[in-house]
Amino acid sequence: MTRTIWDSSVGKKTVMAVSGLVMLLYLVVHMLGNLKIFFGADEFNHYAHWLRTLGEPFLHYEWALWIVRLVLVAAVVLHAVSAYQLSRRDIRARPAKYVHRRPRAGYATRTMRWGGIILGLFIVWHILDLTTGTAHPGGFQPGHPYQNVVDTFSTWYGNTVYIAAVLALGFHVRHGFWSAAQTLGAGNAARDRALKALANALALVLTLGFISVPVAVMTGVVS
Description:
With 223 residues, the protein is mostly helical. Helices cover 73% and strands 0% of the residues. Helix 2 crosses helix 8 (156-183) and helix 2 packs parallel to helix 9 (192-219).
């Protein structure tokens, strides 16, 4: 039964929708955590330390954080695999070019696939930069996330990569949230306008929230 659901296009779209919403929830929480940088180094570093002690003493140090990471990895993999397989299925179903030009789709719709690839590459860079420190500019300081963030956004390439990825994220969320709502049956004629407004609001808030950090470092508001 599970295999049959996974093999169907509807099943893959449902997996994409649910995994996408899991990642969206994480992004909202992650953005709110990032904004703590505006309250100073002590506040931001304390928040980062709290994430590692979350659940203690019932859970060991960093266990809760690793649980979140594993759930996110599973969501990313399921989302990416479903998207790829649906894309290949769509290509096989329409091997010949259209005789008539198809209606011009919106920018976000036409760039969902490339946006997903950009975000996938960004996640790898982001982890290597601010989690492991492998690709971090200068000297990575474990236990000092505030300084590490400032170091990254004190470089032109750190800002360029991050802002480009966040803009791609905004378009991806805007279209993805709407698609997920339709797939899960939340959309109808009465709710379409509200869902579109919510999708636009989520995309805008996440974009501005994430971009505010590198902009603050560039302008000296955070240093």
